[in-house]
Each structure stands twice: as structure tokens, then as C-alpha cells.
């Protein structure tokens, strides 16, 4: 039976999806353009026996998440770019102490205070760990409200399975847009797999420790090797991407809101007879290198489009490995590229062929 | 006492032993350091209240960074200053646990001022053990916000000068004005009598949590003989002669009726003298 | 079929909810749709606007620089969006709060005193429904009955008594638009 479609704002749909995934604790601090998430959670969580805490800062919020995740709960925080920078300390600690949790970044223009319009200029921060030390977080870059909703449950599942923080990177537009969405069935948090490592009081067992301090260098190296083994497993098993029009001569590479716009441009280009497809990374880390191998069977060139001046394009170049030219087109600071602009770049790529850079 | 291997000779009686809530290890603390006393007091209170299996400790950053090795309870290690936020996360998820933070002055009174103030503002049911030794110990004796005027440290050569480096921060006085704080007290770990009072205060700070009255905070004036460049004995005396005048001892807030009365008259530090402190803790006790 | 509509006016003119009603109605009719608000300081004064895209296929960009239609509720909005409308597109204009007419002659223009009509009906706050009714008369992208159904679903209990007034406003807008279009063709 087809379930009911409801019209929801991206931020609210994400929050409801989190509740349905068994999230009962939210810690956050107001910042545009994600305020609908804490607002929604502040009234929704008490209905399901959960708690909402408006923290004194982003720094406090992420550390509350560290505590809540450490105590074994499904919990989350959300923010936008400048706030996410403040959270990096806690994310690093969570990665090191292997505490699961969900962090949502409704990205806005930067650097500095930047603006409040949609951007993708936090890609490097999100996919390279973001804080200090040798770590990664799983990062999703959904393109529609429905996909974002579907990825929330997956994000919590992966966070628990790998005991790692997971990041969902949206942008102002994805947070503010209303689209029809089918919400998932609710998960009972009491029926999730147990977390015997959590700090819940050492009743009838030896005390648990959640820690990221390793003063002996060899011990600290050992932690890093253990984390890296986990990341290798994630790289091998968790890549997600969509290839629209496989077998095309050229591919546009884009994620999130930009991918929607590029999809429209690719459609127009194909109406003009150009052999163009879209390669849309859904996991930004692990970067979907396997999808590039598939595209490279026919691809003569790639055009990366981002709402930044070129961040994901680095990963595209690494994945393509010099086997085809990689072009870049970006708008930034909150400016959203139009399908017409992208179409122009596609035409140029096809015209210039291998002559392009 | 699981790890002890000897048998108690018949006819003898145990009068002093390691609290169950402490692990049987040698600590890394310097000779003469009062952290060991503070750890022991906290562990004794946890034992006496029979909450070891419900306790979750939050270790901070500083000399007490390794507290997770010494308390035989569930422990989380927090970033510098963030222990009250981490504790909030744990306590909100597991209200049946008894959550305490153990933080130094570089942690709580500097980088972590926002977290402690707001945990108190929210009236979180947490217990905070705050070690004030007027210096950054772990990093090698730099100036702390609690460093006394004129006190020499590695970053206040020639002594702390208020014109450039401000004045000592009084945490108890700050926290006690917040409605969410249930119990706030300052005691010194400088003599057997004051240590006994410190333990009473710690117990009360845990009871505040057990009764869900809000935040309980105990500031413990402590010594750092190595960084103060004094003998352990001189260091303990220096607490009394130099720190107590600036950081008067006593109960600043007490949710119980009797306590509220005792804590009602304001405490003021002596202007400069060495023995002007009002010992309201003694009066109340 | 794909239609991008921008609705713009002062904050408080019900521009956002007008767009949401259209989006709800389109969803209930089985269409794909997006609703995107302008957000930020711009929402206080000046032009607050939203973009609704209705399509038979999943919506790519929820943004448009060349809308097929604009519903303009005040003068700053006309200044902002007049040039953006696609040639041959639709422009519904609230002349109650706009002291000029568009300069372009390549648009289907429906100019009517939306706020005055709403006030005559008894409440200026249903101006948005008057405008929506007028728009749907020119471009019936959804049935007005679907809009009313959507309103029924989204209106909180304590506002249910406003349904008849909203229905009247929707009809009044349609009627006025029909008159003006007939005058033009006559």
C-alpha cells in the first residue's frame, strides 16, 4: 500500500525522520537557516518521552551530544556553517572515543559569518574530519527532502554500527524547501541493538570508559590504526551514488541542491542531442569512487558543479586519476547556479572535448 | 577489597582502607598534591551513599585528566572545560545515574566558564567537584584565572598584575547567585578539620543531585607544591595564609532550610590581610 | 508540464501561505511540487516571496530566475520581479498597493484591487485568496476545490470558521479576473 505523501519543510521533515529513527535527544543553538529543526524538536521530543536542550553554545551542544551518545542514546545536533566550525572540537572527540551521533549542517555561505543563503563550501571541513587529528566522519549529501528523510535513519544505523559520528550536509535551500515526502515507520528506541559499552552506571559489571586520551605514543598510534581499519571498511561498504544516464560521453558531477539543478541542465542538454549524464555522490565520505570507475567506462570528460569555488572537484580529480579531463564550475557565497549557466558549461565541455582542461 | 591478597590477622580490626569506588593503582599525582585527598573524599561519599553502580564520572583536562583511571565507576573523558555539558548529556539520557564532574581551575574557571554557568542556570542535577589550586598544574605552572594577585607563575613573571592580568575569579560567589544552583560551598584541603568539612560539603553536593534539587558545586582549595615551588607542608600553610583570605570558606548556597539560613548573610573576602576570612562553614557545621 | 510561480508581497500579506496552499493542492492532485521561501532579513519589509514549482516529473531546481507567472501583491515586488517573468507569462497584480502598471506588453496581465476586494468581503487578510483565485482563473494549474480542501486540512481548529470567507475570496478573485480578461478580449 502506498503511504501518504505529506508536504513538509526540509528542516521539519528531517527532524521528524530523526524522531522516527529513534532519536530522543536534541542539543542545539539557534542559527539560520536551520532553526526549524530545534523548534520542531522542542515541541516534538517531549511528546515521545525525549528531551530537547537549548545549549549555551555550539561547543556545549556537541559536548552534550557526546555525553548523550556516550550514555547510549540516539541523539543529534544541528547547525549551520559557523556553528559547525565550533562543533569540530566535539566531533573530533566523538570520533576518537567512538561515540555515535548525528550532526546536521544546513550549510550557508562563508567564510567568517558569511551569509545565510545556501552554499556547499563546507565540503572540505565535512569530508576531511573537520577537527584535529586523523579521522573521518560518514557524510551524506542528500538532494531532495525525501532522500534526506530516508538518509536520517540510515545515518543513525551507521553511526551505531560503526560507533562513529555521522554528518548530513544539507544547505539552506534543502532546509527551507517544502516538498511532498513519505515519512518512514517509527523505530522503537528500546528495541535497538544494545550498547554494552555505554556509560550507564556499572551495575553488576566492570566500569566502562569512554575516552580519547592516549598519552603513550604507541597506544595513540594503535587507536589511529583501529580507526583507520574501521574507515577502510566504511570505504569498501558504504559508498552511495546515483548515475543518471549511464554510458554517456560526458558527466556532470554534483551533489545536494546543485545536483537537482544539474539534473535539469543535463535533461536540456540531452534534448539538444548531447550525450551527457549526471554522477551524483550521495555519500561525500566515503567518496563514491566505484561510481567513477563505472562512469569512466564511457566518459570522455567530467564537469564538477558546486556552490563553492572548488572543493569536491579535488575528490573528483583523485577518483578520475587523470584518465579524463575534469572541469569545474562554481558559484559561491550563497549564489545558486542556474540550470542555464550549467547548460552553457556542458555545451562548452562537449565542444572543446579533450581540449578542455 | 578484591585485589588484596593478605589475610587480616585475627583480633585486628580494619580502621582505614581504600574506598570501594577507587581503583587499586598508584596515581600519577606529584608528592604533596591534594588531588589524592579530593579523590578519596569523593569515593568515600560515593561508597557511603551506596551509589557506585549508578555513578558516572566526567574527567576533565588538566592534572585530573586521568581521573578515569582512579575512580572505579563508569567514566567519560571530556574536552577542556566541557565536562558540565557532557554531564548534561549523560544525565538527561540516564536520569537514574548519579553524574559528577571533576574539574580544575584552568578547566572550569577559564575555558569552561560558559559550560559551568549554564549547567547551573539550567539547574542540571549534577555534582561538580572544582579543584582550585590557583595555577595551571598539568601544563607546567601557568597563570590561572584563580591565580592570586602578585602570585608568580610561568606566564605572570614578577607576579600577577591586575592592570594587565585582572583579578582572581570567585566561582562559588558567581554560581551561588544562579537560581538553578542548589548547593554551593568552598572548603580547603589544608588541615584534617577542613578536610572533614570538605567531605561534608561533597556529600551534600551529591545529596542535592539525589534529591533532584539542582546543581551542587564544591570548590576545594588545593595545593600545587611543585608549581608553587614550595614544600608540601608550606603549600598547605600557604592555602590558609594566602588563598583563604581571597577565597573565603563556607556554604554559599544550600537548598535545605537550615542551610539556606546559614548561607543567607553575604560573604566578603578580606581586602588583603591573611586571616580575615569568615569561616561560615565552621559556624554552620 | 512544468510551471514556476513566484508570489511576492509584504510580510503579513499571506504570500507564504498562498504558496503553500497551491503546493498542497498540487500534491493532493498527484503532482510533483516544491515550495521555497525567501528567507532572511529581507522578510522584514520589502518583498517577501516564495517560489512554487509544479511539475509532472520530480522537480529539479526549486529556484527560478524566469518564472512562468508572478503574483505581485505590492509595489516593491513589481519592481523586483516585473522583468523576470517569461515572455508570454502571467502577471497578477494587486493594484490596491501598487501605484503603477507594468511596462511590458508581452504578458497576460490581470490587474485588480486585491486588498480592496478582500476588505469589501470583510477581512483584508483574505487578499491572498483573492489573488490566488484570480491566478487560477488564468492558469488553472490546480482546481480551486483542491485549494479549499488543502485549506481545510491545514487550517487549525480555531480558525475553521474562516473557511466560508476564504472560499468567497477565492471565488471573488476568479470572478474579477474573468471580467477583466473578457474586457480585454472584447
Structure description:
- The complex is a heterotrimer of chains A (357), B (285) and C (186).
- Chain A is of the alpha/beta class.
- Chain A contains 12 helices and 15 strands.
- Chain A is globular, with a radius of gyration of 21 Å.
- Chain B is an alpha/beta fold.
- Chain B has a single domain, classed as Thiamin diphosphate (ThDP)-binding fold, Pyr/PP domains (Rossmann fold), CATH 3.40.50.
- In chain B, 36% of the residues lie in helices and 15% in strands.
- Chain B has 12 helices and 7 strands.
- Chain B has helices at 35-48, 67-70, 83-93, 105-111, 113-121, 162-165, 171-176, 192-210, 225-228, 232-246, 257-262, 280-284; strands at residues 55-59, 74-77, 98-104, 127-132, 181-188, 215-221, 250-254.
- In chain B, α1 (35-48) crosses α8 and α4 crosses α5.
- Chain C has 6 helices and 6 strands.
- In chain C, strands 2-3-1-4-5-6 form a 6-stranded mixed sheet, sandwiched between helices.
- The longest helix of chain C is centred in the C-terminal third of the chain and has 23 residues, at 163-185.
- Chains in contact: A-B, A-C.
- Chains A and B meet through α3, α4 and β9 of A and β1, β2, α3 and α5 of B.
- β9 of chain A pairs parallel with β2 (74-77) of chain B, so a sheet runs across the interface.
Care to give the gist of this entry?
Chain A has 357 residues and is α/β, with parallel strands linked by helices. Chain A is built from twelve helices and 15 strands.
- The structural class of chain A is alpha/beta
Q: How far do the termini of chain B sit from each other? A: 32 Å
Corresponding CATH architecture of chain B: 3-Layer(aba) Sandwich
CATH-defined superfamily of the largest domain in chain A: Thiamin diphosphate (ThDP)-binding fold, Pyr/PP domains
What is the CATH C level class of the largest domain in chain A, in words? Alpha Beta
Overall pLDDT of chain A, averaged?
A: 96
Structural domains of chain B: how many: 1
Query: Radius of gyration of chain A from the CA trace?
Result: 21 Å
Strand order of the largest sheet of chain B: 2-1-3-4-6-5-7
Strand and helix order of chain A: EHEHEHEHEHEHEHEEHEEHEEHEHEH
Biggest sheet: strand arrangement of chain A: 3-2-4-5-7-6-13
Helix content range of the residues of chain B, please? 25-40%
Shape of chain B: globular
Number of helical regions of chain A: 12
Low-confidence stretches of chain A: none
Report the order of strands and helices of chain B: HEHEHEHHEHHEHEHHEHH
Count of helices of chain B? 12
